[in-house]
Amino acid sequence: MEENEEAFYEISVAPHQVDNEYVHEQILYSKFPQLKIPFGKLRLTRRSIDARKGKVQYVLRFQSIDLIPIKMDSKT
Question: What DSSP letter does each residue of 2-48 carry, written as one string?
């Protein structure tokens, strides 16, 4: 992992944008201009709702697929 690379990247989106990957990509690269990982190498690993102060937002966490642990099947 590079020195300035983070383990995950979080963004907030409005409810009507929660399933729009194009918007996610645009927000990610504007919030994290140093991000060098292609969007296709990032996976959505967490989706939560932030409804503080009556304003509903979704918080989306993305991680590089290279950093996501692989679950091994114990039967093999």
Answer: -TT--S-EEEEE-GGGTT-HHHHHHHHHHH-TT--S-GGGEEEEEEE
